[in-house]
Structures are given as structure tokens and as C-alpha cells.
């Protein structure tokens, strides 16, 4: 049974020799996942809708009505334009998240899983852009997002529980992108069974570090993310080892056959 202290200590040991690479990859993952707070402000400005009383046409009694009608149409046109712009921004953001964010996230997870096993290679970031892997990754991550969304529609608590149940999907895909979208979620669900509350507590254990980071003009928060990402990779390796021992999956299924002769930290065969 794993403990928070063990995972975090192992993460610290890994980061001693590769912190800045982990920092760079963490920034990419955060950007790919859309975790930065980006605000879009639409300032239309002060509009003066008063009519020109000095009009040479002399329609002094009709002008207020005409101007009012014209102003209403102008406001509607502006609102429609703003709405279209917002929709376009949302569609672009969704497309970015799906077609670029998902692959970058999987590449980042692969980097951290490999780094805790001694393979610190930034080339892992491009892992998911291979044409034999790309669409399977998109499909699996979309399926996961859809199921999470449907669970959140029921109630908040079931949605949160399922988000933890599916939390290992990116790591599973980082091992084998072609495992299949349904199988990836099924395996993640098995891996996290009985561990969801402890995973939640593990996440909470970083709050103190994030609070300290916020004191440094929020910039310090960025330096905590590599620590958490490395710890989560350590957690995945522990849950993966448990899944292999219990026969929930095989080395072949996770595409680990070529690595069987290698060892990760603490001599665990992978």
C-alpha cells in the first residue's frame, strides 16, 4: 500500500537532477489543459444615442422614434456580433484543447512516467503526434471528457468521484495510445478502485505549497506544479504495478514488453 510520504520523497529524488526540464514540461501541460486564467473583456465603449436636434430635415417629433429604432437595431447588431465572436473563441479553444492540448498532455504524462524511471528525455513531448497514435489518443480523451461531463450532469459528487476514477487514463495512453478508449477507462477505473479518497488527499497535500507560491505574486505556484506532476507519475507506476500483479492487464497490453528487462526506481521491474 502506497503512502503520500513515499511518493513525494521519490518525486523529490527525481527532481533533484531534472527539475528545470520538469518545469518546462509542466508549463506545456498546464497550457495544453487550459488551466491558465485567461479573461476576454469586451468593452463596447460609451455610446451616445441622442439625436441631432439641428437636423436640416426638421423632423423634430419623428427623430426620437427613428433614432430609438435605429439605436435598437445597432445594439442588436452589436450583441449579435459579440455573440458570434464569443462562439468563435469558444470553438477555437475547444479545437485547440482537442487536437493540440490532448496530445501535448499525453506527451507530458509520458515524460514524467519515463523520467521517474530514469529516462529524462524531452522528446517524449512529441510522443502523441505520431500518426499511428494521434487519433486513438483523441478518441480516448474525448470519450473520457464526455463521460465525465455526463456524470457531472447527475450531481457534483458523482462527477468528482468519476474524475478520480478516470484520472489514470492519460498515463495509460502514455504507455499505450492504441489500447482503446473503452479499455483505457475500464483499466483506470480498476487501478483507482479503493484509492480514490487517498488520491484526493494526495492532491490536498500540495495546497500548502500552492499557498506559499501565491505569496510570491502567484509566480511561485508554477514551481510547485513539477513536484505534483512527478508525484502523480510515481502514483501511476505504483497503481500500474498493482494492476499487473493482480492480472488486470498485461505487459503486452500496456506496450511494456520491450522494457521488461529494465528497472525503475527501487528496482521494480517494468
Task: Provide an overview of this structure.
With 270 residues, this protein is an all-alpha fold. It has one domain (4-34, 58-267). It contains 10 helices and no strands. It is globular and about 75 Å long. Residues 36-60 and 261-270 have low confidence and may be disordered.
Keywords:
single chain; 270 residues; mainly alpha; disordered C terminus
Number of strands: 0
Structural class: mainly alpha
Write down the overall mean pLDDT.
86
Q: What proportion of the residues is helical, as a percent range?
A: 55-70%
Strand-residue proportion: under 5%
**Helices and strands, in N-to-C order?**
HHHHHHHHHH
Helices, by number, come to: 10
User: Which regions contain 5 or more consecutive residues with pLDDT less than 50?
Assistant: 36-60, 261-270
**Overall radius of gyration:** 26 Å
Largest sheet report: none
Count of distinct structural domains: 1
The geometry reads as globular
Q: What separation lies between the terminal Cα atoms?
A: 18 Å
Task: Give a brief rundown of this model.
The protein has 270 residues and is mainly α.
Chain-wise SSE layout:
Layout: H1 4-15, H2 19-32, H3 63-115, H4 134-154, H5 156-165, H6 169-175, H7 181-192, H8 196-204, H9 207-215, H10 225-245
Helix pairs in contact: 1-10, 2-3, 2-10, 3-4, 3-6, 3-10, 4-5, 4-7, 7-10
Amino acid at each position: 500500500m502506497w503512502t503520500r510520504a513515499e511518493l513525494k520523497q521519490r518525486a523529490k529524488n527525481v527532481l533533484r537532477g531534472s527539475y528545470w526540464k520538469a518545469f518546462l514540461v509542466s508549463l506545456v501541460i498546464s497550457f495544453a489543459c487550459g488551466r491558465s486564467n485567461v479573461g476576454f473583456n469586451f468593452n463596447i465603449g460609451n455610446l451616445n444615442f441622442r439625436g441631432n436636434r439641428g437636423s436640416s430635415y426638421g423632423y423634430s417629433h419623428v427623430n426620437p422614434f427613428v433614432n430609438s429604432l435605429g439605436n435598437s437595431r445597432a445594439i442588436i447588431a452589436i450583441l449579435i456580433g459579440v455573440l458570434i465572436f464569443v462562439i468563435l473563441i469558444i470553438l477555437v479553444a475547444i479545437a485547440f484543447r482537442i487536437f493540440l492540448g490532448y496530445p501535448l498532455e499525453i506527451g507530458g504524462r509520458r515524460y514524467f512516467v519515463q523520467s521517474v524511471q530514469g529516462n529524462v528525455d524531452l522528446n517524449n513531448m512529441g510522443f502523441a503526434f505520431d500518426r499511428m497514435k494521434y487519433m486513438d489518443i483523441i478518441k480516448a480523451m474525448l470519450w473520457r471528457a464526455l463521460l465525465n461531463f455526463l456524470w457531472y450532469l447527475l450531481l457534483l459528487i458523482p462527477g468528482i468521484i468519476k474524475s478520480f476514477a478516470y484520472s489514470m487514463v492519460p498515463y495509460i495512453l502514455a504507455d499505450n495510445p492504441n489500447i482503446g478508449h473503452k479499455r483505457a477507462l475500464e483499466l483506470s477505473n480498476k487501478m483507482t478502485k479503493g484509492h480514490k479518497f487517498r488520491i484526493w488527499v494526495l492532491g490536498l497535500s500540495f495546497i500548502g505549497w500552492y499557498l506559499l507560491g501565491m505569496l510570491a505574486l502567484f509566480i511561485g505556484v508554477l514551481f510547485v506544479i513539477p513536484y505534483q506532476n512527478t508525484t502523480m507519475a510515481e502514483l501511476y507506476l505504483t497503481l500500474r504495478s498493482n494492476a499487473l500483479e493482480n492480472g488486470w492487464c498485461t505487459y503486452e497490453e500496456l506496450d511494456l514488453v520491450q522494457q521488461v528487462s529494465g528497472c525503475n526506481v527501487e528496482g521494480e521491474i517494468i
